[in-house]
Write a structure and sequence with these properties.
Elements lengths: L3 E5 L6 H12 L2 E4 L6 H8 L6 H14 L6 E4 L5 H10 L4 E6 L2 H9 L11 H7 L9 E5 L4 H13 L4
Parallel strand pairs: 1-3, 1-4, 2-3, 4-5
Helix pairs in contact: 1-7, 3-4
Length: 165
């Protein structure tokens, strides 16, 4: 079974919820990559400003450095661009991505329902514009967040147990 997993997608897709449940299901440690953001990134997003690639570089380096050989780990991380996923893969070449995707209206409603989070609903459009779907050569699976978290975890765990892409 794959031991290095990134649960990815835009804000509001359920990365943290599904990631934590998937980690529990697979016996892996869970890490929310939001905890790895430098304070400046958190402040910038909280002020309604989108991060650029320069802002994301140290954060993505920290995400990639979190994977250790032999230690199963599930990380919730947006990983919106192929280049970001390539940086993560540089630290963990065998990583599998679980892309949680959904309708913009559903995602916006979810973001609006969590007012204590630093990511404001206004930044969803920029995340959707930045998102590059998994390429055919990237190990991973795309799951529709219309399904309940337990079903998403089951589908992700099945994919992780399967040797095929």
């Amino acid at each position: 079974m794959t031991t290095h997993v990134v649960v990815m997608g835009v804000a509001g897709c359920g990365k943290s919820t599904v990631g934590a449940l998937l980690a529990a299901e697979t016996g892996a440690r869970f890490l929310d990559a939001d905890a790895l953001h430098p304070e400046a990134n958190v402040a910038k997003m909280a002020a309604g400003m989108a991060l650029d690639d320069t802002d994301r570089a140290p954060w993505l380096a920290a995400v990639a450095a979190s994977f250790e050989p032999g230690e199963p780990l599930v990380i919730a991380c947006s990983a919106l661009k192929r280049a970001y996923r390539d940086l993560i893969r540089a630290g963990a070449p065998e990583v599998v991505f679980v892309h949680l995707a959904g309708a913009p209206e559903l995602l916006a409603a979810r973001i609006g329902a969590r007012p204590a989070h630093f990511m404001p609903p206004a930044l969803l459009a920029s995340q959707l514009a930045t998102l590059e779907p998994l390429g055919p050569d990237e190990a991973g699976v795309v799951l529709d967040v219309e399904a309940p978290p337990s079903q998403l975890v089951r589908a992700a765990a099945d994919r992780l147990r399967s040797p095929a892409k």
